[in-house]
Amino acid sequence: MNKRAVILLSGGLDSATVLAIAGSEGFDCYTMSFDYGQRHRCELEAAGRIAAALGAVKHNTVKIDLRQWGGSALTDDALAVPDAEDSHGIPITYVPARNLIFLSFATAWAEVLGARDIFIGVNSVDYSGYPDCRPKFIESFQETARLGTCAVDEGWHYSINAPLQNLSKAEIIRRGVALGVDYGLTTSCYNPDSEGRSCGKCASCSLRIAGFREAGVPDPTRYHR
Amino acid sequence: MNKRAVILLSGGLDSATVLAIAGSEGFDCYTMSFDYGQRHRCELEAAGRIAAALGAVKHNTVKIDLRQWGGSALTDDALAVPDAEDSHGIPITYVPARNLIFLSFATAWAEVLGARDIFIGVNSVDYSGYPDCRPKFIESFQETARLGTCAVDEGWHYSINAPLQNLSKAEIIRRGVALGVDYGLTTSCYNPDSEGRSCGKCASCSLRIAGFREAGVPDPTRYHR
Question: Are B65 and A70 a contacting pair at CB < 8 A?
């Protein structure tokens, strides 16, 4: 029997690549998405398509409500998603403690599945400024997860795998293309229209557009402006 | 303006005492409970009553579904809640990564509220064997929360307060009585009947009964057997 891994899958380019990488390493992949009240809910449908296309054993959409306290342009309609050039410091699209919550749920599911590996598509190169994407946070979470679960008494630990941590967006795209990822299934936009077409202007779109250009790979994204 | 704190409130004896302690320290208290699919949902009503009685500014019940993967007698109807004497090692009532998930949500809410203090009723003396109640986990979480939020860039940290960590159940009860906690509002049982009456036999009931006896305080709990 293959080893199991839980893969955090957003429906975007990065986490789709992570799923392909985990699969290529021989893991049976259990994918997890979050319906958290995000503005860009079309990513949830994308996540389901990606999980199926890349052969996940089971795909789980966890419903939580981060909109009840807001605090981010992605979870509060009163806050607008800025164009990429407006960003400085920690962006308004940062969702408080989001990856902390996502990784905590992944740890819970992993514990029940008997999985010791968790994969997440955080990245430090084409860098968003989100504190919960940095290596020090990921390392610290790994230790906290060990101490807060059966792992500590049983003498093992979770591995929080972040295989994109040191790759540029172009390198991520080249890696995914080599592994057969269909990026036409993915969506990265923070501010898509009702048909799921991307804005082409937000920070996430800008990084994605530049990545395809630099990788020399045709951009399969549908834009609405 | 008083400082704000987020208090994890289960509806049980310990967290009610924690809320009273936080209030006595001058915090404006924002209480948070979780409807996670637990067998003992009557604790949610208790939490609301306790929050009101002890003057919480706002009480928030967060709905999450830990029943979708089970793995605990509290979240899987196929697993029975054992009587206290059956327990050894990490008990079957341990819910995988529960406090990790609860603290992660508390961190998210605290970040939006501008609160730097989080209170949790974990305890090492009358000890359940749950890994996510131990001081090393709490300390590690505190550092992970700092690294995964705005705190790291702004140069401060969350304080995860566990004021019951080194108290016996009897000491907790005496402390709460001194602070005016009405323990008749609380419920600790893992296996209550449909009217919210306690079983008197599970590990949680056994600790509670012994605590009232040792504290010399009349036990206000309603039992069904």
Answer: no
